[in-house]
UniProtKB/TrEMBL annotation:
Top-rank taxon, per record: Bacteria
Protein name (Swiss-Prot/TrEMBL): Glycosyl transferase family 1
UniProt keyword Heme, yes or no: no
InterPro entries noted in UniProt: Glyco_trans_1 (IPR001296)
SUPFAM superfamilies: UDP-Glycosyltransferase/glycogen phosphorylase (SSF53756)
Keywords of this entry: Transferase
Top-level taxonomy: Bacteria, Pseudomonadati, Pseudomonadota, Gammaproteobacteria, Pseudomonadales
Amino acid sequence: MRIALLAPLPPEKNGIADYANHFRTALEQLGVTVLTPLAGVAGTSEAIKHAVATFNWQTVDLVHAELGGGRLGEFLALRELRKAYSHLPLTATVHDPERIVWRRERLPFPLNLLERLPSPLPQAAVVLADPLTLREERQVAKGLTRLVTLTRLGADCLRLRMQLPTGKVAVINHANLAVPPAPLPALDTLRLLYFGFIYRGKGIEDLVQALADVFAQAPELRGHVRLTLAGGTAAEMAFGAGGNYLEQLNSQIAALGLTDAIDWRLNLPADEIAQTIQAHHVMVLPYRESKKLGLLGRQRGTSGALSWAAACGRGAITSDARAFAEEVASGNGAIYPEGDVAALAEQLLRLARTPALARDWAERAGEIGRERLWPLTAQKFTEVFAEAIAGARHGA
């Protein structure tokens, strides 16, 4: 089997690039030939049209795309390919359902005139153009042979929003690497971990405030609960219109008197991720939904960080944003209403006072990790691909 993979790849620093890289490796280990015709190609219409026109698509059995993360290039390529090759099997993993791309490359006239005006006029223009965006998404989705989501909730929401028939969207859970199990650290000090990219929208400030609330309610726990903030910092995300987010976090931590209770592991090297996670008891992901995106739809994907927690045999406390409730529903963690700092503090306090929960969650997380290893996941994808290829040949 020869496939063309349309996806970001390292050295790009984002979760989908990491996912696509592991995906490619796992497929190749199963004997699948994976070509990457969009590698290094800009995500503009002109660049994508040139790349589509210059690659020999008849040399591949199927094209698979990774869609999400605010990127447009892969979406544009799928649209061009369906126009040019009506029988070529096209599949895609949609990382941010219920939408596929959320925004257009260019706003139509006269809405494009609002893009240079002060906020909130550019955002209003995107919302006003959304019916056109949604129509284009539905056209592309209809032209795909099969779509894949990482959660059941994501599949249901995507199918309804894209008006797809039952059975066109498959669910293949987020895979993880094989990580040798490691025992939990001693339970005399509860070690909490936030892991992921560090920028606005991840709710990290909620977690910091919740930890301060825990110490206010139970002063005896100070010195027995520690939080590590670990992950990547991308300059374009950390330094935004709202100022330097890292500095703001540090200022909040100092103002709350938490400097001695919080550790930092910024830009964590890839080969230290597993040991860092396993040096903690529980991962905490306090994500908040984007209010701006909320005007366009609901994000019902999952998180690469949560997949790492399972791989490393660690439970998680998460907000109920995205499809996190589904991901921690089988005894591997707990959820709380997004943005509810008091509820998050209550979960942290419960864990601190009942540390055996961490052991129970870790055991179940380890089981999930073993069920979702990349070789098993890649095999599921090859089955979807084989069905798509067979169906295209039969249709031809």
